[in-house]
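Hey, weird one. I pasted the Ornithine cyclodeaminase sequence into the form twice and got a warning about non-standard characters only the second time. First submission, copied straight from the form history:
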Amino acid sequence: MITLTDEQIQEKYSISHAIRDVKDILQDYREDAIVQAVRTVLPVDDESSMLYMPCISTASKTSIIKTVSIFPVNKDLPTTQGNILVTGLDDGQHKATMEASYLTRLRTGAMTAIATDKLARLDASVLGVIGTGNMAFEQVLGVAEVRPVERIVLFNRTASKAHDFRIRLEAFGVRADIEVVEDVSEVVRAADIINCATQSSVPVFDGRDLRAGTHVNGVGSFKPSMREMDNETIARADQIYVDDLEAIQEEAGELMHAVESGIIAWEDVRGSLVDFFDGDHLRGDDAEITLYKCVGAGYFDLAVAGGVMRMFSE
């Protein structure tokens, strides 16, 4: 059995690889080759959680189980840490264990790229980022893969973290004008695309500030108690798509609250990634507000874990 660290994976496996592999796993899903259990979220205390995600692909004959710890109280360690165990289904042999913090961020960025490609305006060039924690970085990389990003506007409640994030983007080679603002409304009013990646229990921006034609990616909240987007944002969305509807109905606090409040019905969700990843551009016109909500599912982790296994076996 091989063991791979985040650093070893990062040297070889990038956002473009993840986008390719997520698209492949969506085809497996379409062909009923995915067997998974709903993600189990166990609370440690009021802030910290443990997540467990098992999944099997009968097409690739591969099984994974991912364990993730989310500890917002961490100061010297990452908030999110993970590990994936990969098992071959020919003989049940455990083939690899790999750190999953980077892969979790990367597969989420790949999913955002696929959704943004189908929903954002083709000329969208201003990216707004709300929340500059670890998850946000690969979200930027994902959007930059599918749209001509010329300007990035950053907001974080702790401004110093937003400045650090800007430096990190520039060091990585992201080519855009990057600025940090102190008022979240400046992000919302400027952006063509908004990436919202927080674990907030209350909305972090005012949906009334959204401009016509904006596309919103909500990827931070993953529990019923979390609500980083408000009802106004959901009500104004002309089209709503999700990563996995079953998971969303159990975990997406914003949409669950909006349904309970009568703002929308589950039938108003147009579809999930598997429904449209290889179809045409979905935006009706340049004035529509579109929304993509993501909470994650095991087969997306299987996608990138499988991609890494193939790459390290070459």
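That's the output from the first submission. The warning seems to come from a hidden character in my clipboard, not from the data itself. The CA atoms of residues 122 and 147 lie 7 Å apart.
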